[in-house]
Design a protein that fits this description.
This protein is of the alpha/beta class. It has helices at about 15-25, 40-55, 70-80, 105-130, 155-175, 195-205, 215-225; strands at about 5-10, 30-35, 60, 85-90, 135-140, 180-185, 235-240. The protein has one domain (about 5-185, about 215-240): NAD(P)-binding Rossmann-like Domain (Rossmann fold), CATH 3.40.50. The chain is built from 7 helices and 7 strands, in the order βαβαβαβαβαβααβ. It starts with 6 loop residues before the first strand and ends in an 8-residue tail after the last strand.
Amino acid sequence: MKAAAQNVLITGAAKRIGAACARLLHSEGCNVFLHYRSSAAEAGQLCDELNHLRPGSAKVMQADLLNMAELEAVAHEACMAWGGIDVLVNNASSFYPTALADVTERQWDELVGSNLKAPFFLAQALAKTLADNNGCIVNIVDIHAERGLSGYPVYSIAKGGLAAMTKVLAKELGPAVRVNAVAPGAILWPDNDLSESAKLEILHRVVLKRSGEPNDIAKAVLFLIKDADYITGQILTVDGGRTLFC
């Protein structure tokens, strides 16, 4: 990581993996621009927490990234906050099942929009400032980008697109900007609770026999930002060995 504090935009930063990334990067001296869509209370509390530790080091902004005007406003405000952006962490994601026979256009637009369209257009909007600062992009993909998750076809398609985008943007934005991704496995259970038997069945196929923590992903993101100067176009899988099984 550069000697000077890096300025980081994290989408979907209010909770879960996004918040873990914000806290860890902030602890490493970064300024963090926290985007959220609907979790206003959590985002505000996180921003206050970080600014209490280091005044002026965190800012927060609400936006629906499916709305291009709001997406562009986030990119603009993030650039204005501290005079440029060094790192973009594309974490915001919609996740819910869609039975193939019943998928609606609205569901397609929401899942592809949040998981693929928004990361692409944020990268486009921030390409100049990232290049000027020899910055980087870290996308949060999913192990199911490679092998689709049954019952989640649209989500899996969108994450597969994000994995492909990681590789092609590494070519398009190099050599000035590195682009990599982290693919989490079983880190947090979905908000729509799984049964205990379903959780045990998933963990049975994890070599380490346990779920991960959001900080496991945050540490991988930190590595790709701080210690991966000669890595680009790669996807770092953090899944406890889940993908070793079919």
